[in-house]
Amino acid sequence: MQSKRALIMLALSVLAGLAAVILAARWMGQQAAGEKSSVLVATRDLELGQAITAQMLQPIAWPAGSQPEGSFNDVKLLEGRVVRAGIYKGEPVLEPKLAPEGTKAGLDSVIKPGHRAITVKVNEVVGVAGFLAPGSYVDLLVNINDDRDKSISRVVLERIMVLAVAQEANRPDNSKARVVNAVTLEVLPEQAEKIDLARNVGTLSLMLRNQVDIEGTPTNGITREDLFDPTAAAKKTAAAPAPQPQATPVRRAAPRPAAPRPVTEAAGTVEVIRGTQKSTSNF
Predict the structure, then answer these.
(1) What is the pTM of this model?
(2) Which in 33, 36, 187, 231 has the greatest CB count within 10 A?
């Protein structure tokens, strides 16, 4: 009797296991057959200023409702669009990385509205030993003689983006330094005026900065005298003396009025002349 009961319990356990396996398989099949969408990704690295063609794109499956914002699933919407920011192979093509519709291919298509591109002649020193690359940010330093014919070096512009190095507008795959003879910068019109004046009246240098560093660092510049004076920097950056704490006012008793002085009548003198005689009388 007990063995029969054990067999029944074993059979029930096997049936429950089979039911669980069937339900799990059915659930997984439903999930696999769920709604799918597609997103267009790049089949190669897309360069700045390059026009997109159909051969540069391929669709990949993407869960419906979770597509990246600004993505595309129709090749016709992307044909002829110009790349404004580098897109790597396998990366979804997004609207923020494209130039406005109707833009023609070329470096001018990647310039932000209101900005301009200006080229600066550089050498190994000015070009930060060849470590500049498109997308880098630099500060501009100028060395000139002021009105008193004194040399001064000072930062005139900060966080300027490099559009192109020589004739290349793409960031190289490796970080090997390349010495070039020209760098193209993206600036505002008033910044272009400063650069044009600086390179004609003095010596221009570039300083490479961290891409995520957006804080400005105002400076007062440095002269030849400051260069050999170890206390010059401290003098220029010395804080103003702290205000002295105000003393608590002390109340003083009002002075007693002085006793009135007795009025002394002024004495009068009369001089009387009679003929040849003269006399004086006091009153």
Answers:
(1) 0.55
(2) 187
